[in-house]
Design a protein that fits this description.
It is a single chain. This protein is mostly helical. It has a domain at 75-313. The protein is built from 23 helices and no strands. The longest helix is centred in the middle third of the chain and has 26 residues, at 187-212. The protein is 72% helix and 0% strand.
Length: 462
């Protein structure tokens, strides 16, 4: 968004005051009154329009800034449409149910925390949603921990860690697609680049969870067995259901553009689904738009499998458009440029820029409690700084995930923190120290930036 040219040059005091006022408006609305983020962002847009008119900026110019800002997210919007269809098609083909069933086969009483972390990671990657993973499989695993007499805090930390690993690394995740699209990075190039920090964070977390896990014998596995039985009874668990996944991986390795990869995997999933079950054309169209609806009668299974469809992405799409519209105004009115100019002298090295962007992502999570805004505002603010230093944009998209996406569940008043604490019945303060993957990710991204390791420059990314 750094291509948007400012039409005025506000003072640092005015810029800082407006930024603080916007942050307060959004944070108080979300945290204090439980508002969805769309409404306070709309209020912030009106505030910026009012400031622009006060500074004698023509409304048409302000409208151009809004349009330019929203236009920066069109790549993500198109991907979101295909993600919605991919998720629903993977449900009807049995791809996601088969992956979940495979994950549950790993569950044993021994090394429970490490296995819970691994299983939620697998399922998180499969469905691309951390909160859905926590609310379904996570609840089942926490119940098992209770039966085994294990620590609910450590179990919750393992569940949250695995779920957000999956959310971060899944091509189905809206935050993953948002981070890559916002700075113009190919989805799968973004995922590959995140492995530099994500794999070490995963390995460290797994080792610690394994050490923390007590050896247990004679455990009751009734919860897991009943869950697996309900999955198998749906008729969706089948070896041929892995074909769409194999195709997705193959197209990714062939470096086919993300949109075409998602479209190809969706088409194969529809073919597999129609081959296994007698779906009519009208039912297929209904599933692709409205999502797959599971009717097993087992609430936990139905909650996990009822997902997807284009309509499921509308919340995210509208939020992205509004946040980018606000960002367009912030740039058009010169507010972001003025704030960055004050700290620009200290941002002369890769380590300082990455550290500042990571700190910004964490701060927005803490102040506003919204991971989407953490990704959006960090990307908008620092894209120009990364380009000035010749750093490839995928370095920024990685920071946005390492310090944005996975930090949100660590904040008690954040959207994810409130949801997880309510669903699992474990306060954020209790599982905070055990959400190891979420803690390691921002630390590793900063450490690697200071050493210069894993960083890619534009001349290397061709």
């Amino acid at each position: 968004m750094d291509h948007i040219q400012p039409v005025i040059k506000p003072s640092f005091t005015a810029s800082l005051s407006l930024a603080v006022l916007i942050i307060l408006t959004i944070s108080v609305s979300i945290i204090g009154f439980g508002a969805v983020p769309h409404l306070p962002i709309l209020a912030a847009i009106l505030l910026l329009i009012g400031y622009g008119l006060f500074r004698k900026v023509p409304y048409r110019t302000l409208q151009e800034g809004m349009t330019e800002g929203a236009g920066a997210g069109m790549g993500a919007v198109f991907l979101f449409f295909f993600i919605g269809m991919l998720i629903s098609s993977w449900m009807m083909s049995g791809t996601i149910p088969s992956l979940i069933n495979a994950g549950f086969q790993l569950i044993t009483p021994t090394y429970f925390y490490a296995i819970a972390f691994t299983v939620t990671a697998i399922i998180g990657i499969s469905i691309g949603s951390s909160l859905t993973t926590v609310a379904t499989v996570g609840v089942a695993l926490l119940s098992m921990a209770g039966v085994l007499g294990l620590s609910p805090a450590i179990a919750a930390g393992a569940i949250v860690s695995g779920a957000f690993f999956g959310d971060k690394m899944s091509p189905l995740s809206d935050t993953t697609n948002l981070a890559s699209s916002l700075v113009g990075v190919d989805l799968f190039a973004h995922i590959r680049n995140m492995m530099w920090t994500t794999v070490p964070a995963f390995v460290l977390s797994f080792i610690i969870f394994a050490i923390l896990s007590p050896a247990a014998d004679g455990a009751k596995m009734d919860t897991i067995h009943s869950f697996r039985e309900a999955l198998i009874e749906t008729g969706l668990v089948h070896w041929v259901s892995f074909v769409p996944l194999v195709l997705l991986i193959a197209l990714t390795l062939m470096k086919v553009p993300a949109l075409l990869t998602l479209a190809g995997s969706t088409a194969s999933a529809v073919a597999v689904g129609c081959g296994l079950h007698p779906y009519s054309a009208s039912e297929v169209f209904g599933i692709l738009f409205g999502g797959f609806v599971s009717e097993t009668g087992v609430e936990a299974v139905d909650s996990l499998l009822t997902r997807g469809g284009i309509s499921s992405m509308f919340f995210t799409i509208t939020l992205v458009v509004l946040a980018l519209t606000m960002g367009g105004l912030l740039f058009k009115l010169g507010i972001v440029q003025t704030l960055l100019a004050r700290v620009e002298q200290s941002l002369r090295t890769a380590g300082s820029v990455i550290g500042a962007s990571a700190a910004t992502a964490v701060s927005i999570n803490v102040l506003i409690g919204e991971q989407y805004l953490s990704i959006l505002l960090t990307g908008q603010a620092f894209q120009g700084q990364f380009k000035k230093l010749g750093l490839a944009s995928k370095n920024l998209s990685r920071v946005m995930e390492d310090a944005g996406t996975v930090v949100n569940p660590l904040v008690p008043w954040s959207v994810c923190g409130i949801f997880i604490a309510d669903v699992l019945g474990v306060p954020v303060a209790d599982y905070f120290g055990f959400a190891l993957f979420c803690l390691f990710s921002p630390v590793l991204t900063i450490l690697f930036s200071l050493t210069g390791k894993t960083l890619t420059y534009d001349r290397e990314s061709a």
